[in-house]
Each structure stands twice: as structure tokens, then as C-alpha cells.
Design brief:
Radius of gyration: 23 Å
Shape: globular
Helix content: 25-40%
CATH architecture of the largest domain: Alpha-Beta Barrel
Bound molecules: ligand LLP
CATH topology of the largest domain: TIM Barrel
Structural class: alpha/beta
Largest sheet: 9 strands, mixed
Distance between the termini: 53 Å
Number of strands: 18
Oligomer: single chain
CATH superfamily of the largest domain: Alanine racemase
Strand content: 15-25%
Length: 406
């Protein structure tokens, strides 16, 4: 597993911008978008990038330029999408458990909303009559790479349970709203497409209740990418083909084209990202060496939060003898990036690259231990490095902390 960007170039960027640093590769994002566009062959297909995965404006600009819309979960994400030049009709809003004010913000911007609670439907009907909305259903199917990444279980907080479809139909019959879409999202890191097959059958069936007004069916995201060198990729070509065939038959039965939407986050940006980090020290303990890096789960939380495997490469000692290391962060609590990894010998001052850092890396970063968040650089399709977010300063971090001054 090598970085998508040559090691030499990453080392140059490390010098130029300082560490830690996120570096993304636009070509990889474009490649992932093209794969989906080729796999799904329905006449009306849309990718709506789930921008929670990596919300930086420059990334959204690139993804929108490649023909995708954007899926958002908060007023903040809607603002980022608008700032990136994405028109409201290419933005959707799929929140979970937010206050009505946040729906109001989305609706005022002309953004299409996905509704997953009945009181929200009633409220939108009262305040925004005749609006076209999408209903989010939970098909009640467990899928996803980690317990925390499964959102489709029976008792999940996400979506209206599919068993309530008749009840929702009875309610929408009394409202002025147009049900223009049906949505589902099963979870993240889903490596086998079998659970999707089962789930979208439920969702297609649910959509029949509003078939005269349905314009879009949204299958959510969650397509797995390989984190570990031995991980399987989801076979997106055969999956896309199967969904497309099923969907075409459905459209034929209905007698018109309906837009098929997918909402990937990880699939588009994960492999494009690299987190560069500097080794602040090493220690020999028994068989396994210990390498401390000057970043931590404040900047990249996936290993600690989901026990996620992220491959680590020693950029500055690529020919060094391979030895076994734990790689740990600088936070003052357990902060582990990797255990028992075979890596080219790590020395103080080396620069390591943590792979697959594009999705849920920067977007989940925090200021824990009062540390500023890193800069982000995008290598554009011509190979030019573009700074798309400067590093935070300590001043940025402290600005809102006003003590007893008022
Ligand atoms: N659509 C909806 C409604 C979602 O909630 C999500 C992700 C997606 C699409 C995109 O899922 P993806 O294609 O990225 O798997 N922080 C976790 C992932 C959380 C996913 C939350 N929802 C991680 O680092 O693995």
C-alpha cells in the first residue's frame, strides 16, 4: 500500500507547510466518482457526496465540478456547500434529531430535505406548505464494518422504521406536502452488497405508496474501501449493474424515469487522503519499538473510535530495515494509531504517512489538549499543490474562550 502521491513530493510538502499535514489527491477522488458513474447505468443517476466525510470547501468545489451534488447534515455543511458554489437544488439535507430551526434554514435556502420524524413532517406542512420532501426510512437491516457504523438496525435512531410506512402514508394523505423521494442509509464500511440488495427492495416497495409523486430514490452511502492491504473492495461494477437493472425494471413498471441517488462519503475521499506526521521520539521496549508522533486522536480519531486499521508508511526511511513498532500520539491519554506494525525502522525526526486519511479525518478533528488543527493541501489534477485550508493558530483556538471578561 503506497501513497497515491510520490513519497518525495509528500516530504517536500511536509517541509513547505509543516506538520502534521493532511494532503489529498484530486485524481483519486475523480477516479472514484468515475467508477460510480460507470457502474450505475440508469438514465437519471446522481451522486450526492456525503460531505461530513471531508467538508473542506476546496474538496466540495472539486467534487461538484465533477458533476456531483452534496448531501449535508447541518446548517454549517449547507453553508460550506453554498460557499463552494453548489446551487441549492444540488444540495440535500439529511440530518438526525436536529431542531426545527435547522430544517427552517435548509428550506429557506431552497435545499431539499429528508425527513425522518413524523413531527417534522407536520411542522414543515404548517410552515412550508406544499413543499416537496423525501422520507427517510430505516429498512431494519444490520450492515456496516463496526457496531458504531451500523445505522440500519431495528431499533436504530435513524429514519422512520419501514414497518410504519402505512402510518406515514395515512399522515401524508392529510398534508399538503409532496412526497418526492424515499431515502435509506444502512451504515458505513459495508463490504458486501447483499445487504443493500435486500434493503433497497424494501425502499422501492415503500416508494410505491407515493408512486404518483416520487421523483427520486436515494440509496444512501456506506460503500467500503480497503483500509487494510488484505481488505476486499466492494465490487462496485457488479453492484452498480445489479442495482441499475433492478431500478430500470422498476421505472419501466412505473412508466417513467426516476432519479437514482447514491450518497457516498468514504468511497469518494478516503483513499485520496494522507496524514503526514513527525516522529517526536522513539523507545525500545522488548520486541516492539514505540514511536511517538506529534499528532493524535485530536487530528485523526478513527483508530481510537472504531478500532480502525490505517496503514502507516515511513516516508523518510523507505529502505530502512523492517521492524515492529507501535505508533502512538502525543495526547495525554491512551492515543494509539497502530499496534505491532512492521514498518521500515522509525527514528526520531522521521516523517510517517498514515493512509486513507481523507474520510472522517479532518472533519472529525478537535482541539483536544488545546492543539490547533492542521492545514490541508490538495494536489490538483495537474499535479499542483494547493493549500485549501491553512493550519489553525493558537489564536484561532483561544479566540472564543473569553473567561470572565464580560
Ligand atoms: N448518508 C448518510 C445519511 C450518512 O449518515 C452517511 C454517513 C453517509 C451517507 C456516508 O457514509 P459513507 O459512504 O461515508 O460510509 N465516522 C465514521 C463514519 C460515519 C458515517 C456517518 N454517516 C467513520 O469514520 O468510519
Amino acid at each position: 500500500m503506497n501513497p497515491n502521491i510520490p513519497g518525495e513530493q509528500l516530504l517536500t510538502l511536509a517541509k513547505e507547510y509543516g506538520l502534521p499535514l493532511f494532503v489529498y489527491d484530486a485524481q483519486t477522488i475523480t477516479r472514484q466518482i468515475s467508477k460510480l458513474q460507470q457502474a450505475f447505468t440508469v438514465p437519471d443517476f446522481q451522486i450526492r457526496y456525503a460531505c461530513k466525510a471531508l467538508t473542506t470547501v476546496g474538496i466540495l468545489q472539486h467534487i461538484y465540478a465533477k458533476g456531483c451534488g452534496i448531501d449535508t447534515v447541518s446548517a454549517g455543511e449547507i453553508q460550506v456547500a453554498l460557499k463552494a458554489g453548489v446551487p441549492p437544488e444540488m444540495i440535500s439535507f439529511t440530518p438526525s434529531g436536529v431542531l426545527l430551526q435547522e430544517y427552517a434554514y435548509a428550506l429557506d435556502q431552497g435545499v431539499h430535505v429528508h425527513v425522518d420524524q413524523l413531527h417534522v413532517l407536520e411542522w414543515i406542512d404548517r410552515h412550508y406548505p406544499n413543499t416537496a420532501i423525501t422520507l427517510r426510512f430505516n429498512p431494519g437491516i444490520v450492515a456496516g464494518g463496526h457496531l458504531k457504523l451500523q445505522v440500519g438496525a431495528e431499533d436504530s435512531k435513524f429514519g422512520i422504521h419501514i414497518s410504519q410506512v402505512e402510518k406515514v402514508k395515512a399522515l401524508t394523505n392529510t398534508l399538503s406536502l409532496t412526497v418526492a423521494g424515499v431515502h435509506m442509509h444502512l451504515g458505513s464500511d459495508i463490504g458486501s452488497s447483499g445487504s443493500f440488495d435486500e434493503a433497497y427492495e424494501y425502499v422501492l416497495n415503500a416508494s410505491r405508496h407515493w408512486i404518483d409523486t416520487i421523483e427520486r430514490i436515494d440509496l444512501g452511502g456506506g460503500f467500503k474501501i480497503p483500509y487494510h492491504p488484505n481488505d476486499q473492495r466492494i465490487d462496485i461494477m457488479s453492484f452498480g449493474q445489479r442495482v441499475s437493472d433492478r431500478f430500470k425494471a422498476f421505472c419501466q413498471e412505473v412508466g417513467r424515469d426516476i432519479t437514482l441517488i447514491v450518497e457516498p462519503g468514504k468511497y469518494l475521499v478516503s483513499e485520496a487522503g494522507h496524514l503526514l506526521m513527525e516522529v517526536s521520539g522513539t523507545r525500545d521496549i522488548g520486541q516492539t519499538g514505540l514511536a511517538y508522533v506529534s499528532t493524535g486522536f485530536n487530528h485523526f480519531v478513527r483508530p481510537m473510535n472504531y478500532d480502525a486499521y490505517h496503514h502507516i508508511v515511513n516516508l523518510s526511511n523507505p529502505q530502512g530495515e523492517v521492524a515492529r513498532f507501535d505508533v502512538v500520539g502525543y495526547l495525554c491519554e491512551t492515543d494509539t494509531f497502530a499496534l505491532e506494525r512492521d514498518i521500515n525502522t522509525i527514528r526520531r525526526g522521521d516523517i510517517l504517512c498514515l493512509m486513507n486519511a481523507g474520510a472522517y479525518g479532518f472533519s472529525m478533528a478537535s482541539n483536544y489538549n488545546t492543539r490547533p488543527r492542521p492545514a490541508e493541501v490538495l494536489i490538483d489534477e495537474e499535479g499542483n499543490a494547493r493549500l485549501i485550508r491553512r493550519a489553525e493558530t493558537l489564536g484561532d483556538v483561544l479566540r472564543t474562550d473569553i473567561g470572565f471578561s464580560i
